[in-house]
């Protein structure tokens, strides 16, 4: 069984319950990875126009405007080429991006095909569906807010999935700290006898699908886990006939005045959002993308809010800690939830063996009194 730990949190950080809209950026950058581009520079695009087909899904334009050229941008997954689109603010929509679906009428095979094609998910051989609304990283509430804003629609679509795919169980997983969501769901769940709520302790890493399945003693092969961000996209496509254009992101931390959840267009430059919405409390700050433990320090210039980014934390700048020699305390070894020996990560053969097993959870670096940063080995760096 995986070891799970509870992290200390700064209770003074409170995210406002009002979601801020930042959905009219003057420009967006849509990253692509060696995917055939379906549009030409200097042509007009509408919301929903297919831009390129990438990793089993079609990426569409989140705004209407003019396609410019390709630019290098930074994302949570490193440097990428992205298509620049200048907003004309006309909000033209490409009509009928897909054939409109009536869930009650669609047959199982057609729905399977659509989910596989658009979202790369399959219900084949699955009889349990988990809706994962867990935010693992401290101060991040993105998954929670997707649920909070859409819980009625989510319950409806989960209920229909249960019927269409003959699921024996649908479970919504939340942490005990998500009291607003818990109260709202408890009010409605009486109408959905096939959906249950699992209220889980505030342990770090329970949001990892494999750990969650293991914790609930479910079968890996017959359980499908969807997070709330993905269900939001599925819901929009199936129920509202809308391609992905926007997303939620947590902007939080001790160095800004009002931590909040922001609804943004996919591909928005982080700098423009910060310049327009964020008031800093500190003169010098550090920006962390993707959470305190799993995330990385970034520079906002040229950084794009792509579909994989769930949070930006803004913390007071602290002097960088210099790595010191290992004192062989064993803390990194003891804390690793999947029993990797972080001390051996600098050995290429060991690294190769455990690379896929490692959860990139950051706990080994977090606990180390000598400030050894193990992420650099996991990301292919050297031990110099
Ligand atoms: S990041 Fe460190 S603690 Fe986390 S799984 Fe990998 S080796 Fe273990
Ligand atoms: S936690 Fe740091 S100091 Fe302790 S054994 Fe691991 S690497 Fe060495």
Describe the structure in your own words.
- The protein is an alpha/beta fold and 384 residues long.
- It folds into 3 domains: 150 residues, no CATH class; 133 residues, NADH-ubiquinone oxidoreductase 51kDa subunit (Rossmann fold, 3-Layer(aba) Sandwich); 48 residues, no CATH class.
- The chain has a 6-stranded mixed sheet with strand order 1-13-12-18-15-16, with helices on one face. Strands 2-7-6-3 form a 4-stranded antiparallel sheet, with no helix packed on it. A 4-stranded parallel sheet has the order 10-9-8-11.
- It is globular.
- The relative contact order is 0.15.
- The model has no long low-confidence stretch (mean pLDDT 89).
- One iron/sulfur cluster binds next to α7.
Largest sheet: 6 strands, mixed
Q: Provide the spatial order of strands within the biggest beta sheet.
A: 1-13-12-18-15-16
How far the N terminus sits from the C terminus, by CA atoms, comes to: 34 Å
Structural class: alpha/beta
Order of helix and strand elements from N to C terminus: EEEEEEEHEHEHEHEHEEEHEEEEHHHH
Q: What is the CA-atom radius of gyration, in angstroms?
A: 22 Å
User: How many structural units, i.e. domains?
Assistant: 3
- Number of DSSP-assigned strands: 18
Portion in strands: 15-25%
Unreliable parts: none
Instruction: Give the mean pLDDT.
Output: 89
Helix content, binned percent: 10-25%
What ligands does this structure carry?
Answer: iron/sulfur cluster
Count of helices? 10
Q: Which shape, going by the Cα principal axes?
A: globular
Quick synopsis:
The protein is α/β, with parallel strands linked by helices and 384 residues long. It has helices at 108-119, 142-164, 179-188, 209-215, 228-240, 270-277, 331-335, 348-354, 363-367, 375-378; strands at residues 20-22, 27-32, 44-45, 50-54, 57-60, 65-75, 78-87, 128-132, 169-175, 195-200, 223-227, 246-252, 260-265, 268-269, 285-289, 296-298, 304-305, 311-316. The protein has a six-stranded mixed β-sheet, covered by helices on one side. The chain has a four-stranded antiparallel β-sheet with strand order 2-7-6-3, with no helix packed on it. Strands 10-9-8-11 form a four-stranded parallel β-sheet.
